[in-house]
From TrEMBL:
<dbReference type="GO" id="GO:0005524">
    <property type="term" value="F:ATP binding"/>
</dbReference>
<feature type="binding site">
    <location>
        <begin position="25"/>
        <end position="30"/>
    </location>
    <ligand>
        <name>substrate</name>
    </ligand>
</feature>
<dbReference type="InterPro" id="IPR018022">
    <property type="entry name" value="IPT"/>
</dbReference>
<protein>
    <recommendedName>
        <fullName>tRNA dimethylallyltransferase</fullName>
        <ecNumber>2.5.1.75</ecNumber>
    </recommendedName>
</protein>
<feature type="binding site">
    <location>
        <begin position="23"/>
        <end position="30"/>
    </location>
    <ligand>
        <name>ATP</name>
    </ligand>
</feature>
<comment type="subunit">
    <text>Monomer.</text>
</comment>
<keyword id="KW-0460">Magnesium</keyword>
<feature type="region of interest" description="Interaction with substrate tRNA">
    <location>
        <begin position="48"/>
        <end position="51"/>
    </location>
</feature>
<comment type="function">
    <text>Catalyzes the transfer of a dimethylallyl group onto the adenine at position 37 in tRNAs that read codons beginning with uridine, leading to the formation of N6-(dimethylallyl)adenosine (i(6)A).</text>
</comment>
<dbReference type="GO" id="GO:0052381">
    <property type="term" value="F:tRNA dimethylallyltransferase activity"/>
</dbReference>
<keyword id="KW-0819">tRNA processing</keyword>
<keyword id="KW-0067">ATP-binding</keyword>
<feature type="site" description="Interaction with substrate tRNA">
    <location>
        <position position="114"/>
    </location>
</feature>
<dbReference type="InterPro" id="IPR039657">
    <property type="entry name" value="Dimethylallyltransferase"/>
</dbReference>
<comment type="similarity">
    <text>Belongs to the IPP transferase family.</text>
</comment>
<dbReference type="Pfam" id="PF01715">
    <property type="entry name" value="IPPT"/>
</dbReference>
<keyword id="KW-0808">Transferase</keyword>
Length: 330
């Protein structure tokens, strides 16, 4: 897929390139991005919301220094688990990283599976820049606890019906964010939003596996995370003062272990819950990916898949967009 402003073909080719690698969790995006970066003189910009947090390494399957193989990575370990990090801030930081990489004459590779992050960058979302208001959020959370999420959702429907129509009442965090934006601007969140194509030409490549194989990889990774010390990692975060209800701790693998450490479940039950929740998240990602247009898909099980992917990327970087279909024979 080539994303560019609606200019002449010549002007579009003058735009700097951005390669995006997408796919469900455990499909191999990180390793592929690193391998590709080594082959095309690139740097990786993470689009995984879990990679942002320092000290959350095992449960997020964050690449180690050895696994990075010297490839510079951006937007990894940028905030503490107790800090807020908004979508607007991610988009700003991602655009800055992409610009810096391009200025050095290297190729930015956006890699990850967080749908909001990917879309915010590739579609150029206009995101209301309203900073978090802890006092307002606590007030709204108290309302949700005392009167129920539906009451909070009704408040949103009264000031921003379009947002209420797309945000379920059960997603209290997003309901509060929409109310927070209205509270500070006096305007509905949906009125402030929009899209402005970013100043890149974009190639999107996707990795895909049959569901059964993906689930096997997920389950194997969960077992490896437990063996690597996930329980101790979560215990250490709690002992360092990270609240168990901090947004970062809602990441899959952390909330389940918190429940175990608090005596609410057994370790085998927590592990099974991690597997189940990761399977569900992979299905959610797959549903989102099916809606993405112009993705060039590759199955990592097939012989020669990476060589075909590399040929496609090199064709794109050479500016031969008309030859992309012939280069992509997957």
């Amino acid at each position: 897929m080539i994303v560019a402003t609606r200019t002449s073909t010549r002007q579009a080719r003058a735009l700097p390139p951005l390669v995006a690698i997408v796919g469900p969790t455990a499909v191999g995006k990180t390793a592929t991005a690193i391998r590709l970066a080594l082959d095309i003189d690139g740097e990786v910009v993470s689009a995984d919301s879990r990679y942002l947090y320092r000290g959350m390494d095992i449960g997020t399957a964050k690449p180690t220094v050895a696994e990075m193989r010297g490839v510079p990575h951006h937007l990894i370990d940028v905030v503490d688990p107790t800090e807020d990090y908004s979508l607007a801030l991610y988009q700003h930081d991602a655009y800055q990283a992409i610009a810096d990489i391009t200025a050095r004459g290297r190729v930015p590779i956006l890699a990850g599976g967080t749908p909001l992050y990917i879309n915010a960058v590739l579609e150029g979302w206009r995101i209301p820049e309203v900073p978090p208001d802890p006092a307002f959020r606590e007030e709204m959370e108290q309302v949700a606890r005392e009167r129920g999420p539906e009451h909070l959702h009704q408040r949103l429907a009264a000031v921003d019906p379009a947002a209420a129509a797309r945000i379920p009442a059960t997603n209290v965090r997003r309901v509060i964010r929409a109310l927070e934006i209205y509270h500070h601007t006096g305007r509905p969140m949906t009125e402030l939003e929009g899209k402005s194509p970013p100043p890149y030409r974009v190639l999107i490549v996707g990795l895909t596996l049959p569901r059964e194989e993906l689930y096997r990889r997920i389950d194997r990774r969960v077992d490896e995370q437990i063996a690597a010390g996930l329980v101790d990692e979560v215990r250490g975060l709690l002992e360092a003062g990270v609240p168990p209800d901090a947004p970062a701790m809602s990441a899959i693998g952390y909330g389940e272990i918190v429940a175990y450490l608090q005596g609410e479940t057994t370790l085998p039950e927590a592990i099974e819950r991690i597997r189940y929740n990761t399977h569900r998240y992979a299905r959610h990602q797959t549903t989102w990916l099916r809606r993405m247009r112009g993705v060039h898909w590759f199955d990592p099980r097939e012989p020669g898949w990476y060589e075909r992917l590399l040929t496609l990327v090199r064709t794109f970087l050479a500016g031969n967009e008309t030859d992309l279909n012939s280069a992509d024979v997957d």
